[in-house]
């Protein structure tokens, strides 16, 4: 199943995508008891939005060995966690804005898990079962500010620095999915989630022992090697096998 959040004639709605048709729901697909309201609309007539509005965006750093090497990071003993503010969220096809205070803004394609149930101090199996579905994400980073600050908050938190979408897929196996990032049609990142240093069940369990994960929260699972800068006018695409493509331009 593919679930979408979209705008049609100035109204924000949720739906199930079937081919090129959207079966409209009576509320958020994360809401218990949400069901079709009888309305159907065409995908081509709407604007897709970020599929969820998370209370928090939990990110994982250094979760691929090759990316750790390219960034000169030692392999961490525990998962490395940081947060992006929900204000960084960006819709599919919307423009990533390069802030004036940064001279280098990088793409970081990632698999994103969308939580469907509340979990706290959960075992791995329980934590994984609480995931509603998966989408594509881009952990946009002001690399020069990350290096300057010595911590990641400013570099990761600018408005538009968290594109996600275009939809949430429920029938997806996160253990071995190909992931690629293309910049202006050229493949820059190409890896597979089987290369995670910390598999998703371990990640989610670990996070749940640090902070409660609520429905709608998203977990960005880390980026593979090949990160690099984006310039104004560039087009960046994050592709994940079994999910689809997240496309954005750079302003």
Automatic annotation (TrEMBL):
Residues 1-51 form the Rv2993c-like N-terminal domain. One of its GO terms (molecular function) is acetylpyruvate hydrolase activity. Keywords: Hydrolase, Metal-binding. InterPro entries: Fumarylacetoacetase-like_C (IPR011234), Fumarylacetoacetase_C_sf (IPR036663), Rv2993c-like_N (IPR018833). Residues 56-250 form the Fumarylacetoacetase-like C-terminal domain. It comes from the Bacteria. One of its GO terms (biological process) is carboxylic acid metabolic process. Belongs to the FAH family. This is Fumarylacetoacetate (FAA) hydrolase family.
């Amino acid at each position: 199943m593919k679930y979408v959040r979209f705008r049609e004639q100035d109204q924000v709605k949720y739906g199930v995508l079937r081919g090129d048709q959207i079966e409209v729901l009576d509320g958020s697909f994360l809401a218990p008891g949400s069901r079709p309201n009888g309305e159907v609309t065409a995908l081509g007539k709407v604007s897709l939005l970020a599929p969820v509005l998370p209370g928090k965006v939990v990110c994982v750093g250094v979760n691929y060995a090759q990316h750790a090497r390219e960034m000169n990071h030692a392999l961490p003993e525990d998962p490395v966690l940081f947060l992006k503010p929900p204000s960084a969220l960006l819709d599919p096809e919307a423009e990533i804005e390069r802030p004036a205070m940064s001279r280098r803004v990088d793409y970081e394609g990632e698999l994103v898990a969308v939580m469907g149930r509340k979990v706290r101090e959960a075992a791995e199996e329980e934590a994984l079962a609480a995931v509603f579905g998966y989408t594509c994400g881009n952990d946009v980073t002001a690399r020069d500010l990350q290096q300057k600050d010595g911590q990641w908050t400013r570099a990761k938190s600018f408005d538009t620095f968290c594109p996600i979408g275009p939809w949430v897929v429920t029938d997806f196996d996160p253990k071995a999915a190909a992931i690629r990032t293309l910049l202006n049609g050229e493949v820059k990142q190409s890896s597979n989630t089987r290369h995670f240093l910390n598999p998703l069940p371990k990640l989610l369990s670990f996070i749940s022992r640090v902070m409660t994960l609520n429905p709608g929260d998203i977990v960005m699972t880390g980026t593979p090697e090949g990160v690099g800068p984006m310039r104004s006018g560039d087009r960046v695409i994050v592709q994940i096998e079994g999910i689809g493509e997240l496309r954005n331009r750079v302003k």
